[in-house]
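We emphasize that the prediction below concerns an isolated chain of 147 residues; any contacts that depend on oligomerization or on bound cofactors are therefore not represented. The input was used exactly as deposited, without trimming of termini.
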Amino acid sequence: MLAFQSPQRTVADDKFEVLISETVSVWRRVLYLFLAAFFFALATAGVILPVLPTTPFLLLTSYFLVRSYPRLNEKLLKLTLFGSILVDWQVNGGVRRDVKTKAVSIVIIAIGFSIYITAFSRRLSLIIAAVASLGIVVIVNLPEPRD
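Result of the prediction step, given as a token string:
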């Protein structure tokens, strides 16, 4: 069986360090790369769609990239839009308050605007608002970074 031996090295970005030292088969590496791409697409859609969370999909993307292509994970951590969120989560164990505030504000504005401009029934509008409220509760309850 073909296997990819990930060289034992430390990926460092500020305080973030991951030790990579596992052997991954070629097929598993391809599967992990596919899953990383899938979850990254969902995370990107989550930036636009208020009912789809972004952070959990980013964490899954990073998880699979570390195990398949660590260099791509390093690039993910350096992205302007997503990198700081991931580094805060992985290094400091939380999401900053300003990120939470922006996320909740965007959800409220997007859902309010969507309900206002569409001809949804009152019941469907309430369901959409309830699902968005669950997302807001999740965002608010995320831990804040340790000092």
